[in-house]
Amino acid sequence: MIIFLKSVLIIIIIFGCSYLGYLKSISFIKREKILKDFDIFFNRIKNEICYMQTTVPNLIENNRQDLDIEIKNALGAISTDMLITNSLFQIEKSIEKNIDKIKNLNSMDKNYIIKGLNGLGKTDEKGQESLICNTVKFIDMQIEEASNLKNKNAKLYKNLGFLFGMFVVIIFI
After folding, report:
1. pLDDT interval class at 1 (50, 70, 90)
2. What average pLDDT does the segment 123-141 reach?
3. 110 pLDDT exceeds 80?
4. Are 49 and 125 in contact (CB under 8 A)?
5. Closest C-alpha to 139, from 16, 58, 37
6. Which among 31, 124, 125, 171 is most buried, taking Cβ atoms within 10 Å?
7. Where along the chain do its domains lie?
């Protein structure tokens, strides 16, 4: 009976630690995916600004539909707030609040995305296109960094979780 309980405890410890390592590795994968979604989003907006005369809330609403649910919800709230209020200050606060809710992005990612969204509709077509191009360039650099971090760290954390579980089992049992 005691051997059975020890075996069950060993399995629980190893799987628990492995799962924690897996959860940590997922944050690297999600960051890259979220940045790629924002890259797609800003490129679509740039095309619509260049070739169509659409209001900013409609731009956001039309282009958020295929994105990750977390981004989709944040952009939907921003779009709704833009339609409800005309206050530039309130819109900027809404953008900041809703982008800050997105997990797995670092503060630099969030700041550039917020700056990119805040600049929409404030200048002429060329100014907006330039702002979006700069935002897309930054996001592309961040995607490259996120991809490198994912390749280095995702497998590391998965293995580290398993090894930590084995360490705990060996030390305590």
Report:
1. confident
2. 88
3. yes
4. yes
5. 37
6. 31
7. 34-153
